[in-house]
Write a structure and sequence with these properties.
InterPro entries: AAA+_ATPase, ABC_transporter-like_ATP-bd, BCAA_Transport_ATP-bd_LivF, P-loop_NTPase. The protein has one domain: P-loop containing nucleotide triphosphate hydrolases (Rossmann fold). The two termini are about 35 Å apart. The strands form 2 sheets. The chain has a 6-stranded mixed β-sheet, sandwiched between helices. The chain is of the alpha/beta class and about 240 residues long. Helix 3 runs parallel beside helix 6.
């Protein structure tokens, strides 16, 4: 579904990613692991069109994305849940969900999708008319994922979904990630510092270090790798 070849990207004259190459099979969950400063968020921003790539090639469903804008990539079926969530704080939960459907035309389908999101995250139903700025971190993450799902993506990019969340909320979020993948066949690229959680749900994983991929393989294989355990799993 997604093929990245020799991707170089960064900010101005600063190159952060140095020739990244990887593939994401349709229907899979792929984890991108790495410590702070490894280039994970830069990668997600480059894939979603928020920053331009310096060189390399990104193909989505065998079509080169080239210099397509973030909006056009969203219309193509590629949605990002950004680090920090970037919610519209002055809007309600429902209004944020509606904003996520701005590429859609059918009002009826939009209302159906809102109900689907509220079934996935029952807590949002209780907070439906609350302003996003008043939500807890966990509620905000649920809303950010729900807003992205409103665009009907075929590929979901999740940037640090567990960041700043209590362990019980992390479990809820990852349960939904698994459900979206297994029940709905949604393809997911998951950037995470929580290697335990990410490798538990992922099929394949890549380890990013200093803007380069230093290790990759099936998630189960990397979980058993002593270097991965020492560097990213606390043991």
């Amino acid at each position: 579904m997604l093929k990245v070849e020799q991707l170089h990207a960064g900010y101005g004259s600063l190159e952060v990613l140095h020739g990244i190459s990887f593939e994401v099979a349709q229907g899979s969950i792929v984890a991108i692991l790495g410590s702070n400063g490894a280039g994970k968020t830069t990668l997600m921003r480059a894939l979603s069109g928020l920053i331009p790539i310096k060189s390399g090639r990104v193909e989505f469903e065998d079509r080169p994305l080239g210099r397509l804008s973030a909006e056009k990539r969203l219309r193509e079926g590629l949605a990002l849940v950004p680090e920090g969530r970037d919610l519209f704080g002055s809007l309600t939960v429902r209004e944020n969900l509606v904003m996520g459907a701005y590429t859609r035309r059918s009002r009826f389908e939009m209302e159906q999708d809102i109900e689907r999101i509220l079934d996935l995250f029952p807590r949002l139903k209780e907070r439906l008319h609350a302003h996003a700025a008043s939500l807890s971190g966990g509620e905000g993450q649920m809303l950010a994922i729900g807003r992205a799902l409103m665009s009907h993506p075929r590929l979901l990019l999740l940037d640090e979904p567990s960041q700043g969340l209590a362990p019980i909320i992390v479990e809820t979020v990852f349960d939904v990630i698994e459900q979206l993948n297994k029940a709905e066949g949604l393809t997911i690229v998951l950037v995470e510092q929580n290697a335990h959680q990410a490798l538990e749900v992922a099929h394949d994983a890549y380890i990013l270090q200093g803007g380069s991929i230093v290790l990759n393989g099936e998630a189960a294989t990397l979980t058993a790798n002593s270097s991965v355990q020492e560097l990213y799993m606390g043991g």
